[in-house]
Amino acid sequence: MATINVNNLNVLSDLHPKPVRTFSYGTAGFRMKAELLDSVIFRAGIAASLRSKKLGGKVIGAMITASHNPAEDNGVKLVDPMGEMMEGSWEALATQLANAESNEKLLEVIQRIVSAQGIDLATPARVAFARDTRPSGESLVKALNDGLKVLGAKGTDYGIMTTPQLHYITRCLNTEGTPEAYGEPTAEGYYKKLADAFKILIEGKATPAPLTLDCANGVGAPKFLEFLPYLSDTLPVKLINDDINDASKLNLNAGADHVKSHQKAPVGLKLAPLERYASFDGDADRLVYYYADEDGTFHLLDGDKIASLAAMYIVDLVKSAGVEGISVGVVQTAYANGASTKYLTETLNVPVKFACTGVKHLHHEALKYDVGVYFEANGHGTVLFSPSALKTIFSHEGSNPAQASAIRSLRALTEVINQTVGDAFSDLLLVEAILIQRQWTARVWDQAYTDLPNRLVKIYVQDRTIFDTTDAERKLVSPAGLQAQIDAIVKKFRDGRAFVRPSGTEDCTRLYAEAATRGECDELTYRIAGLVFDQAGGAGQRPQEFL
Ligand code: G16
Q: How would residue 101 be classed by pLDDT, with cut points 50, 70 and 90?
């Protein structure tokens, strides 16, 4: 029976001392100021090794990124073998490893996990990892590598990649040579898979007008440039905010999170009427679209609009293909605009389920449908096809040319969509393919339903851990009494809805509000933001009016 080399552990752990601080695995992994992360990433390497051993040597992914956060932050997301976010129960184990106060305690936690999980330490462990463009990534990779050495795991460094590329590669490595083989485990394999499927989806259609793509000055920029040749001029795209050499620009007044939160164009972009624009976030797992109408009014096409477009298209395609018994459902969070839920359930007649914030929660709900469309309003999401749906789609040929063509499109759809996790490249191709097939502009897409005016804002407080929620994060249970005060304000606004929850990725709380008109929504937002700031230890400047 293999044992832990304690001397090796001590030597390596001494290189990555733990600061006096408590860490927790948040909405998407550990995430904070990069200077605090060295020991956390080292221990995440141990967590990934243990998880791999537990799963019989399957490859676990580790992505070093802080996604939409500012440049000085960083983090790590751990990826399970099929490319999905690591199982919830292991987040607690990773947290215990991160918080062990000394080498002795760290050894104790490892031993406890080994025994509780029935792990055979002799099982080999494999970990695939990559990082985004943040300068801190390089030294954090060293910490991760040291973590892998503790239990002798084999690490493979995929260099700089988008988060969804690493998720894709993890699944490919684990399914290689099996009937579920997902693709070639390389960036090239990823590009080819997506581009080939996209070309099938748009066969015979005219090339669209150019898309302007804001890359948040993040990893999406060099990677999309690398990807473009595979599309062979089928999709004209002009990149902006593509400077990865000046790290301070990452996500700064640019990218999907900025556009969604501020509901305006990113820095350096003047919107031409009725042209279409899109933004990635810093690690290219989120996507939002937008356009301005003739009078310059800004229109956002966020994750809810993408989910609605995808659901509409898939429902139509399933019907046209004449395939029986494929249920389509959508998963949203409390951030979903009320108008989108109404459109999905009442116009498209598709069931909608709600999950807590975090794609990991939505993903698991979406697995319950044959075709599960899941999107967060912030533009993070994808579509999952169940094994039985795939079997049906790939075993039917259709009894007439129209059905055969719909089946061909459905098959291509299963390939263009990254089924491991929300992926801005793949989602962009999905949206573009639908718009091209329908010959729709962004405005026509937008007309499916009208969003209730809404705001998503950050409120900075001294200690966000005093916030606790219930009811899928829609109600506060603490600070005591605050929810009742929020309810009293919301009641005064037509179609008013609002909730406050602590962020799991940033040191702030988030407030979402919607109401019948823009003016009422802004007033509602302002009043609740002020209330929370005053009653719950606001930090820095009191929230300004949102006009
Ligand atoms: C991550 C998660 C998303 C979540 C977002 C914000 O996104 O993957 O599911 O919506 O954080 O979470 P919170 O409101 O808890 O801060 P990303 O793109 O930053 O990895």
A: very high
β-strand partners of 77: 63
Measure Cα distances from 28 to 61, 493, 520, 530 in Å.
13, 34, 33, 28
- Catalytic residue at 67? yes
- pLDDT confidence of residue 325: 86
Q: Point out the domain boundary residue: 252, 275, 301.
A: 301
**DSSP letters along 474-496, please?**
TEEEESTTHHHHHHHHHTTSTT-
Closest residue to atom 5 of ligand 1, CA basis: 358
Q: Is 358 in the pocket of ligand 1 (CB under 6 A)?
A: yes
Q: Which of 49, 52, 67, 279 is catalytic?
A: 67
**Edge-to-edge strand order for the sheet containing 454-459?**
454-459, 509-514, 497-502
Q: Could you read off the pLDDT of 63-77 as tens digits, one per residue? A: 999 999 999 999 999
Q: Is 327 annotated as a binding residue?
A: no
Q: Are residues 532 and 407 both part of a single domain?
A: no
pLDDT attached to residue 547: 46
β partners of residue 26: 29
Distances (CA, A) of 507 to 76, 162, 220, 513: 16, 24, 25, 20
Do 114 and 134 have their domain in common? yes
388 labelled binding-site residue: no
Of 160, 181, 197, the residue at which a domain comes to its end is: 160
Q: Is 505 in the pocket of ligand 1 (CB under 6 A)?
A: yes
Q: Is 70 in the pocket of ligand 1 (CB under 6 A)?
A: no
